[in-house]
Amino acid sequence: MALFPFLCYLFFIAAYHAKADDPYSCDNNIGNYTSTSTYDNNLKTLLSSLSSHTEINYGFYNFFYGEEPDKAYAIGVCRGDIEPNQCRTNLNNSIGYLREQCPNQKEAIVWGGDFTLWYSNHSIFGLLETSPTLYLYIQMNASYVDQYMQAVANLMQNLTANAALGDSRRKYEANSVFDTTVFETIYGYVMCMPDLSSQQCSDCLTRAISEIPNCCNGMRGGNILKPSCRIRYDPYPFYNSTIELDLDSPSLPPSSGKLLTPPYLKQSYPN
To answer: Taking the model in full, what pTM does it have?
Structure first.
């Protein structure tokens, strides 16, 4: 995506969860479509199906629908502490919002507080995409800036090493650390699109971590959002325990999407 090489937002704590303020990006360079066009119908069918896939219990949905050149692709992924039903509800509730903000762009993305929804007219499965980047931070200054930011970087790097080892259902890690140099507990998580390879995930998160000084230097909380990965740290707990994956739930080979089957043609999309 190439709408903006860089965007910076100033958000307070409450804004992290304010639905109307969920950050988004509409890509005007990929191309536009018109209402009731073939692509529009394919996209509506595809998006309206996400909440129907109750067989998926690991919070990652990657489907495509239609034929070229009007094929639609979509990815929805939730944080690893979100229950499947809540994940589907969050993704489904974000569809109308994103379509309202990006009414005719073929590619768009929204970053909710605990999920990401991304769709396009080209395959985005297994794609390492780091642009556009959005920055959010809390206007709360750290007392010992250098020490605090180093503690943040160390935490993010440790989380990255574990998240990158995840399989094609989940690449996510959350944890906290009490840093004795600043006498404060720092909470954080990192997340990649699960269909990335381990190296792609590590590369994306490493790049995000390297941008912390640009985003939120000296700030006690920050959030860096990219299409393929995202990171967040805060001075307070904001996530629950990670949900254990069902060992019987199959993982898919990286980069593989799932074809939406004909029965979903009957699904409707709310205007």
So the answer is: 0.86
Q: Which secondary-structure segment (H or E) carries 148?
A: helix 145-163
Query: Confidence band (pLDDT; 50, 70, 90) for 53?
Result: confident
Give, in order, the Cα–Cα distances in Å from 27 to each of 4, 177, 271.
8, 37, 21
Phi and psi angles of residue 148, each rounded to the nearest 5 degrees, phi first: -65, -45
Task: Look at 20-24, 107-111, 264-268 and tell me which has the smallest mean pLDDT.
Answer: 264-268
CA terminus-to-terminus distance, the chain? 26
What are the structural domains of the chain? 14-127+249-264 (3.30.430.20), 135-234 (3.30.430.20)
Burial-class residue 162 by CB neighbours within 10 Å (0-12, 13-18, 19+).
middle
- The alpha carbon of 227 is separated from its chain's Cα centroid by a whole number of angstroms, namely 6
* Three-class DSSP category at 159: helix
